[in-house]
Every structure is written in structure tokens, then in C-alpha cells.
Amino acid sequence: VTPLDWKPEERSGVAVDPATKLVLFGTRDGWLHAVRPDGSLAWEFRGAGPFGPPVVVGDTVYVGSTDGRLYAVAIPTGKERWRYQADEDLATRPAVAHGAVFVTSFQDTLFCVDAATGKSNWVYETENYINGVPAIEKGITCFGGCDAKAHVVSLLGGAKLRSVDLGAYIA
Questions:
Q1: Beta strands 100-104 and 109-114: pairing type?
Q2: How far apart are alpha carbons 106 and 123 in whole angstroms?
Q3: Sheet of 69-74: strands edge to edge?
Q4: What is the C-alpha to C-alpha distance for residues 98 and 139, in angstroms, rounded to an integer?
Q5: Rounded Cα gap, residues 33 and 24, in angstroms
Q6: CB atoms within 10 A of CB 125
Q7: Strand pairing partners for 166?
Q8: Is the pTM of this model over 0.85?
Q9: How does pLDDT run across 43-83, given as a tens digit for each residue?
Q10: How many CB atoms lie within 10 A of CB 17?
């Protein structure tokens, strides 16, 4: 096993699969790593750009990348299940709910993708880049970004329900 190229300043985060105890994280060199509790490498998955923070749901890890893609990777094998081509920097942590994956871009878009197939359900655009994770509750999603607005969007079709001008950048 070779040493992993990981440094504290990585833009990715870490996720742990509760079933296998694998620690999952991406690195700026475009690799998603799965490490066993004993420190040995279980598998690696190659993307085309640095990965953002992953999220684990069931036996799948969902992770966005600066290569403009959202990936679903099988945790037991490290094999790609599907990829969604967004053509925007997706290095934010996805949220998964109601059979869908929600991920924001560093451009200006919230993407809603079917969690099983990777097909687009809908896309919602804002006026500036988004750098946070959408909150999901009772049929809506809410998120903020650098347009200084909190956006409230319906999970059914991605329709704008309202936006609230907060007067400041939302981190």
C-alpha cells in the first residue's frame, strides 16, 4: 500500500459507512479513497478532478467533483454505479432524501438527481454561486448562497416557493 496524498487543506470532507466502517474521502488529485479501520486501503475510485465531501446512504457513496460530475459509487466494491454530468463545479456535500440526491454548484445551480439512476429530476438556478448543503424537510429544500438570499424550493419539480433577501452572503 502506498501513502495517500491527503493533507488537512483538502477541500473534501470525510464520511464513514456505518455498515463496513470504511472511511471515505476524496483528494485534490482526483481520487476517492476507502480506508478500512486498520488503515489499509479497501479501494480507490478515479475521477477527473478534486472531490468534494462525500455522503453515505445505504451501500452507496455520493460525491461531487470539480470535474462537473456527481458520482454514485458502490461502497462494497468501489465501482461506479452512475455519474451525472452537470458541467459545473460540484465540490459541495450532497444531501440525499426522498430517493433523490441534491447537490449545489459553485456556479449558481441546485441539481436534483434520481438516487437510483443518476437521471436529472430538475435544476434550479440562482443569481450567484452556492457553497452550502441544502436542507430538506416536509417537501421543500432550503439553501443559501452568495446572492444573499435564502431559497425555498419545492421538491416536486423544483419550483421556487420563495426567496428571502438576507442582505449578506450566506456561507
A1: antiparallel
A2: 14
A3: 55-57, 60-64, 69-74, 80-85
A4: 9
A5: 6
A6: 13
A7: none
A8: yes
A9: 999 999 999 999 999 999 999 999 999 999 999 999 999 99
A10: 20
